[in-house]
Amino acid sequence: MKLYNLKDHNEQVSFAQAIKQGLGSQQGLFFPQDLPEFDRNDIDALLSLDFVTRSSRILSAYIGDEIAPETVFERVKAAFAFLAPVAPVAEDIATLELFHGPTLAFKDFGGRFMAQMLTEVSGDEKITILTATSGDTGAAVAHAFYGLENVRVVILYPRGKISPLQEKLFCTLGGNIHTVAIDGDFDACQALVKKAFDDEALKKAIGLNSANSINISRLLAQICYYFEAVAQLPQAARNQLVVSVPSGNFGDLTAGLLAKSLGLPIKRFIAATNANDTVPRFLSSGNWEPNKTVATLSNAMDVSQPNNWPRVEELFRRKNWQLNMLGFGAVSDETTKAAMHELDALGYISEPHAAIAYRLLRDQLQPGEFGLFLGTAHPAKFKESVEAILGKELELPEALAERAGLDLLSHNFPDDFAKLREFLLSLPD
Ligand SMILES: Cc1ncc(COP(=O)(O)O)c(C=O)c1O
Hints:
By secondary structure, the chain is α/β, with parallel strands linked by helices. Helices cover 46% and strands 17% of the residues. The chain has 2 domains: 83-104 and 216-390, Rossmann fold; 107-215 and 405-426, 3-Layer(aba) Sandwich (Rossmann fold), CATH 3.40.50.
């Protein structure tokens, strides 16, 4: 598999290199040179396979002969060791529950596949994973790499801006997992990570690698669950499918669009955001004008400069698609709460991120269409807000209950690159 840097098309790398490097020069994102496509018969055959077999075929279509298909299969089997069920919500609406992995969030798919691939391509090299999280990435990456040899993980997150339980889930592990609470918002954490990747000396000294949604392996993994959703839907729904994606950094939407580009029959996507609405405003006005990031109930989507957007634009350019085929919308906290109540009345307890996707889906679904929204996290991950909004008590799933009583092991740092750099260089082997 060959990939190119979106900021410099002459920089071309292999899949192994793209995984290890994360970003290209000038902080450019890597994008696949070949965009494989399946015809309708291939798609039908794929949809009849089990999740792991199908996913490994999809991933091998991208990866090519760089990693043997049997190896990809074994790695996918280790990574995707849990289900992604479609649950009905209304007559013409269902949700794809992506929260049945060890950290109860969709990022388990990308995080665990990336850990498997990185282990595969790194051999004995020592590496340091540095990533910024607005909540779920941190937990998924921490758990995916916890205890793996030759890998150190450093996770930055905005202090006080992620849910207390989310924090417990990944900041209590210790061992090769180091967590740092930054005095700033998620964009500040992301900027620190980008600075580290621009620092050649640092990169070399610690074998720097990223593991957030900018890493192409995470994105490729996420393509697979869009296929899984379609495989579970009745034939009639397949050709009339509208998928609503709760979006922050737009990794999940990019993966969905890549699934469509492979030939998966998805009629339309809805890019669903909270008040951090840079993309919806861009899609309606044509002007890219990020505002200051604001805190919302759906805090993992509090991103005003979504870093995967250039990949979306590149895909549209390569496929000759028009951006106006994307549905979009931004949902306020008040409307998010109303959507959670509406779902509760339908017998489905949800959390703020998925509720945003649901709300826009039910507003924009046309007669004859079938709607699917992504359930990106288990409601118990946002226990405090879900309970306060719905006036109900939620039971903690085991993965969270176990960690809730443990002490946080995080460091607190200012938004200061020099301090972070010093810390990274001082990490034990
Ligand atoms: C629960 C939840 N939903 C949605 C998103 C948005 O996903 P993306 O950043 O891929 O747009 C995130 C991102 O962290 C998340 O944690």
